[in-house]
């Protein structure tokens, strides 16, 4: 028995080693199968599902902010808003001193009234000039008749003078009668010249009357009192003065939050100077800067899930791709990269992608501009 114990022990040890090896082999096989299964699962997940999504944490909220600037210059009389205050579109936010604008409107209204009276005077003057033209025409006819009569008297005096000069040679006519005939001829000749001058004067007066009426007619041609250019110009100036008066009341251009208010009461501001900014938080969007290698299947209209650092990953916003920028961020930088230089190093570029957020979700949980966001685009959708 004592001789058999080492052999038995060796056999037992060998059996134990074989059992351990078998158990280890099974564990290795199980581990290998597990690794293979996990790897296959990860591969299949990445290939058939995860690869259909592109994500980035280089995303920030933005909005088309409205910068409020006055259309006219003036002194600030009242400021009704402060930074962080919510305003509605059309709400009065700043009032300018309207004294100058009111005076300008009164002057423009007075000028409009004067222009209307001036045009009515043109119309009345046209009738007067018409009557004057008829009078000049009558004078012209009378002068023509007087010239014809003077010519007739001249011809008769000439005939009488010729006859008496012929008779004077035979002594049939006295010298006194011949002198009277000669005086009558001279008088008739003078009357002809006077009548000719009168006719020329009447013709000139008639032409002047025509010119005056034509000049006046140009002022009222093809227009009524309302559409006359002088009245139209004066009315436009009146309307501009009225608009300038309305512009002394500055209203919020959009719904939003007031930011960067720099205007103060009593400040003299110029037209176009920045007073404040209204941020329309109701129309906030997300600018997500994706790497260029991520955009192969990104299209406008694809759905996007977004989380914000403000609310954490428990709150998810839903949106759609609204558009892709026309260039990379470096292209529009203040100092763009000069890749033509000899020390160029390739850097993966990022392209801004605009994402439109769901309005109802945005109204429930508002976002300020400039917040950090995480965006994931589902590229399975055709867009």
Would you write up a description of this structure?
The protein has helices at 5-48, 99-170, 175-220, 229-246, 359-364, and strands at residues 53-62, 66-68, 74-79, 86-87, 92-96, 249-251, 256-259, 268-269, 276-279, 285-291, 303-308, 312-324, 350-357, 372-378. With 383 residues, it is α+β, with helices and mostly antiparallel strands. Among the domains are: 67-98 and 248-277, RNA polymerase II/Efflux pump adaptor protein, barrel-sandwich hybrid domain (OB fold (Dihydrolipoamide Acetyltransferase, E2P), Beta Barrel), CATH 2.40.50; 101-243, Orthogonal Bundle (Helix Hairpins). The strands form three sheets. The protein has a six-stranded antiparallel barrel with strand order 1-10-13-12-11-14. Strands 2-9-7-4 form a four-stranded antiparallel beta sheet, with no helix packed on it. Strands 6-5-3-8 form a four-stranded antiparallel beta sheet, with no helix packed on it. A hairpin with a 3-residue loop joins strand 11 and strand 12 (312-324). The longest helix has 72 residues, at 99-170. It is rod-shaped. The mean pLDDT is 84.
Please tag this protein with its features.
383 residues; alpha+beta; OB fold (Dihydrolipoamide Acetyltransferase, E2P); 4-stranded antiparallel β-sheet; 14 strands; rod-shaped
Shape descriptor = rod-shaped
Mean pLDDT: 84
| Record field, number of beta strands | 14
Low-confidence stretches: none
Strand content: 15-25%
CATH superfamily of the domain at 101-243: Helix Hairpins
The profile of the biggest β sheet is:
6 strands, antiparallel, barrel
- The helix-and-strand class reads alpha+beta
Radius of gyration: 53 Å
- Walk across the major sheet and give the strand order: 1-10-13-12-11-14
Just give the CATH class of the domain at 101-243.
Answer: Mainly Alpha
